[in-house]
Hints:
Mean pLDDT: 90
Oligomer: single chain
Bound molecules: manganese (II) ion
Number of domains: 3
Helix content: 25-40%
Amino acid sequence: MLIATTHKNTDFDALASVIGATLLYPGCIGVVPKMTNKNVEQFLSTHKTAFNLVLPNEIDHEKVSKLIVVDTDQWHRLDRMDKLRNNKALEIDLWDHHMTGKGDIEPTWSLKEHIGATVTLLVREMKKKGTQLTPLDSTVMLIGLYEDTGHLSFPSTTSEDASAAAFLLENKADLNVANFFLNPPYEENQKEILFEMMKKTEKRTINGHPVGFNCVKLDKKVPNLAAVVSMYRKIINVDALFVIFISDETNTVIGRSGVESIHVGEVMLVLGGGGHAGAGSASIKTAKYTPTQIKDKISAILLEKKSETVSIADIMSFPVVSVPPTTTMREIQTIMQREKIRGILVTENDEILGITVLWDLKRIKKQRQWDSPVKAFMARDVITITPNTSPTMAARIMKEKDVGYLPVLQSNKVIGIVTRTDILTYYYDLLPD
Ligand SMILES: [Mn+2]
């Protein structure tokens, strides 16, 4: 017997990939964990019989000769598959896009790639094989693809994810049905959790990033907490948010990040969980760490990761052109044209007095002003940063102070300057491969 299964707390990408596997492998039965996400549960309540799906207790493990695992690479995330773990003759195919490197499932064959959704990998194979899809098949796969890629907007999305979406739409995926399951309305108890979080958020600055922490007592089951955490991060405008949901035996941490330099999945991995760059979670026995210890642990992990991130020193421009305050505006114009720069520092005895930018030249209305000294035109309040400032932080300073140039100071000496162009170059160079 051939079965395909996936992780507990099954999301749509996982479900769609199981269904995809039943279509790709002749005779394959899809085994869906008992615990699924709320919207998946709702979908299955009406659609289950349309697909070749069963529950883990409905299969005879002895008869399984081949296992297809999708959207995870870890045994403990599967539902009741331990019996298969010791079966040495078992053939295993693995399809996944979680690249944490900590998977303990040893596959016979695998396809693991950085891609927005696992289902995209299965679609690739379907295109090759010319697999026939019903509108129902296409719809569930499109929901999985959209959910894991934030409707093709998450940074992990690849052009192939978009092509897969196009393929599924060509195969009559129904966007009305998809939208219904992708945007479930907020429920009363989700709102309660949100209000609970609003009462008390601890903000820490870690490596220049504002990071939020919350502890919320959880005394009943609340569906899709992750969506609430995700929304709350945007409301309080922090780069990353970690919410510790406290219950009797296990505390669950859900993390969300909106910046590249905070990889939630890597943090959660240290805590025994997992996830992606932008989203992840971990369950921790209450006996192991107190909520405060969890917070400190997350902060410590984030601090450690610092060395891997790009700093301003890597992207700043240098050498910096500086002139004495008596330099005329005519000379300033000549230097800007010659050096092809838009900003010049005005210094005296190594001290920054001000900065003049291309815009200052445009303010010159009368001919004689070209002979005026730069000190009459320069901006005097120069905001400086240090070489270990993160590019994200620099971008934030530029926005808040409405300046386009940030001289970089080390031991009171100017070693470079960061412009908006440098920041843009940084952002675009670092877009995912
Ligand atoms: Mn996935």
